Amino acid sequence: MRPRVVSSGGRTAAVAMRQFGLAAACFRGTGGELGSTPAPRGFAHRPPGTWGRGLCDRLKPRGPAGNPVEIVLKRRYRPGLRLVGEPSSTPTPSTAAKSTQVTPAVGAIAPKALRIRTVIPSIRSPLAPFGGVMATSLVTGATGAIGGAVARELSARPGVVVLLARDSARGEATRNALSSGKAQVELLTCDISNPASVRDAARAFLTTHSSLNLLVNTAAIFERQRHVTPEGRELMFATNHLGPFLLTNLLLPALGAGAPSRVITVSAPASTRLDFGDLDGLRRFSAFHAFGASKSANLLFTGGLARRTAAAGITPVAFHPGIVKSGLMRDAPALARFITALAGRPPARAASALVKLGTDPALRLEAGGFYKLDRPARAPTYSREGSVQEQLWAASAKLVGLAQP
Description:
CATH topology of the largest domain: Rossmann fold
Shape: globular
Mean pLDDT: 75
CATH architecture of the largest domain: 3-Layer(aba) Sandwich
Low-confidence stretches: 1-128
Number of domains: 2
Number of helices: 11
Order of helices and strands: EHEEEEHEHEHEHEHHEHEHHEEH
Largest sheet: 8 strands, mixed
CATH superfamily of the largest domain: NAD(P)-binding Rossmann-like Domain
């Protein structure tokens, strides 16, 4: 549930207060700015307070100080309840990282004291939700090698990690394995190749989450023989491209609410040209060509998405993990499996780079860019052609029944 806005307008360093996930979810009273980062949705501008001044000294805000602190409760206590009070001590930059006690105003329906712990290293981040306790991430292919490793990395930090898995038993096993981490781990069962299943999963997510800070599309398959979905789509194209395309579009409202947010789609430097007259390989099918085409589609989709989300604070990028030891190529010819086993890097290495791309505020990612691990790379020329990106977008929207923006 989002904090209730008490007053609107202005830019504020209240973005820093996302870090408080114990009982308070919104802090009003800091005033000023954190660089040029605007206040997130649901936060309001208020005159800075005594307690806020200690934090704001570290953040270098603009504006005077001197008014009480106001906190809007979101978790553990009654949502929307306001507490107004003076801190028991005035923190300074050297003491702000310690716990601060705030006494509620007379008549407030709340405990006599509310203790909140600040996390100063996280507050410095212009991408405030990451490093904060309530950042929300969603990982597709969460039972796979890369997806599972990414989920493991994310679950080691405070936040909410939503796993998307086709096999409910394997998904539940993964969720249980990650439950000992710092994050709240949730599971959604979804067949990413099935548009109806994707819509159900997106609907379930949006029912319980108002925002999303990071979407990681890792789900992918390689099939040596041609298989089709019940809708008649070639299975690799449906799983590797159409599913992520539809899911990402359905989650755009949550990604916008969680801005600055990021969408990372695992791909490869594929230069395979798509046959728009035969996207399902009905007339001619080659497993490696179809797989390459689906990876080209990932790159083209990322470019098209970047144009559509530039004003919304959403940064989509394509991620190349290199050769990774995984079960992706288990249906490939023996030589391909041998090369993967011999030259593949551990999934954890790729996951570490991906999570860095997704959460490190110091990285200024290029929207629509292509990254090999955590370094910028040059995508194939074909995937950067705007006309082809738009052609694929139109075709994909038609195939999954999505209205074009």
